[in-house]
Write a structure and sequence with these properties.
Layout (H helix, E strand, L loop, with lengths): L2 H5 L32 E6 L4 E6 L12 E5 L1 E3 L3 E6 L5 E11 L2 E7 L9 E3 L5 E7 L5 E5 L3 H11 L14 H6 L7 E4 L11 H9 L3 E7 L22 E5 L1 H12 L4 E4 L1 H9 L10 E5 L14 E5 L6 H10 L1 H13 L10 E4 L1
Parallel strand pairs: 1-17, 3-12, 3-14, 4-11, 14-16
Antiparallel strand pairs: 1-2, 5-6, 5-8, 6-7, 7-10, 8-9, 9-10, 12-13, 13-15, 16-17
Helix pairs in contact: 7-8
């Protein structure tokens, strides 16, 4: 082997432009399918470099007894509120991002230029919030005047479902049900774990009857999931921090599955991010209750996940970078070209991919 050949064995340093592609606007799903679980499923086999086309209801055909299905049970809350500035009739949109501490939230406001530190934002006759700080990302920090339970009751009753920016319409009653997984339990996300939107109760029953173990965890997805990377050198990108929780029972189930030779099938990139963020040493998943800003892009050696259920993602996004790290950049780009040719629907309400 020559020196030149040895040099060429080094992993390629991927750049932002490597994850760009053209997507026809009509391929961006604006509504969910008529019935949950009716979406299409592209199966990508890494060992054969092949694609096959199925329906999502066929997913159990590709699972085996002894496998473990890990999924994100975060629950989306209606984070879009509207308020009026004090001494003004100006309406302001207040998008709740995350609770920093009791009564204090990080939010996005629109129009931002009209909302300054010291302003009061009135949600109704009894509930208001003081703007107490700015954030480096252009948001605001507010402090509301009531208890957490009173404020969250107002949010749940008056807030609107937060839809991704590429869905070019206002939220409708259908979104309250369909922009939420059937296994949603832990309130705290402003975006849905979209790979999980395809599952039905009946499909879960079929999967468990096949001898597949279930392993729920929580990662509260923030708006950073929709944010395109802005730097060509991926090493300079900083991920938004997101809270995640892996219960002890889930960690034990996953570790025992791997010990006995079963596969870990992750539902969604948020599940992968949680599992990979839990590692201390080796490949054992650890119970965790903390925040992660882990950015996974190629080349990356996965320690936990063997198979991945995911949707089709935006170009130049951290999500397509993670999927490319898992399946290989060239194979994923070929799969996306195939999906566009075969008229798969993309993004949150779109079709799904299973990577074996």
């Amino acid at each position: 082997m020559t020196k030149f050949e040895i040099f060429n064995t080094q992993p390629k340093a991927f750049r932002l432009s490597d994850f760009d592609f053209e997507l026809p606007k009509e391929r961006i799903a604006q509504y969910p399918s008529d019935k949950r679980g009716e979406d299409r499923l592209m199966v990508v086999d890494r060992s054969k470099n092949s694609f096959s086309h199925h329906r999502f209801a066929e997913l159990p055909l590709f699972l085996k007894s002894g496998d473990c299905l890990a999924f994100n049970n975060t629950k989306v809350f209606p984070a879009r509120l509207f308020a009026f500035k004090d001494k003004s009739d100006s309406e302001v949109e207040v998008f709740l991002l995350r609770e920093l501490e009791e009564q204090i939230w990080e939010v996005l406001v629109k129009p931002a230029r009209k909302v300054r530190i010291g302003n009061k934002l009135h949600f109704n006759d009894k509930i208001y919030a003081d703007v107490i700080d700015n954030t480096i990302s252009g948001g605001r920090v507010i402090r509301h005047n009531c208890s957490k339970s009173v404020f969250m009751k107002y949010v749940m009753n008056s807030g609107k479902s937060p839809l991704p920016p590429y869905i070019r319409r206002e939220s409708e009653p259908i979104d309250k049900e369909r922009y939420q997984t059937v296994f949603a339990k832990e309130l705290g996300a402003v975006a849905a774990p979209t790979a999980g939107l395809h599952f039905t109760e009946e499909l879960f029953e079929t999967i468990t009857q096949k001898g597949v173990k279930l392993a729920p965890l929580t990662l509260h997805i923030g708006l950073g999931t929709f944010r395109s990377v802005q730097v060509e050198d991926l090493r300079r990108h900083q991920m938004d921090s997101e809270y995640f929780k892996i219960p002890k029972k889930t960690a034990t189930t996953i570790n025992l599955t791997k010990e006995h030779g079963g596969r870990i099938v992750a539902v969604g990139t948020s599940t992968v991010r949680s599992l990979e963020s839990s590692l201390v040493s080796g490949s054992d998943v650890n119970p965790k209750n903390t925040w992660t800003d882990k950015f996974i892009y190629p080349p990356y050696e996965f320690q936990v996940v063997d198979c991945l259920v995911t949707n089709f993602h935006q170009p130049r996004s951290t999500l397509i970078m993670m999927v490319s790290a898992f399946a290989g950049h060239d194979l994923i780009m070929e799969a996306y070209t195939e999906a566009i040719k075969e008229k798969y629907n993309f993004y949150s309400y779109g079709d799904a991919m299973l990577i074996l």
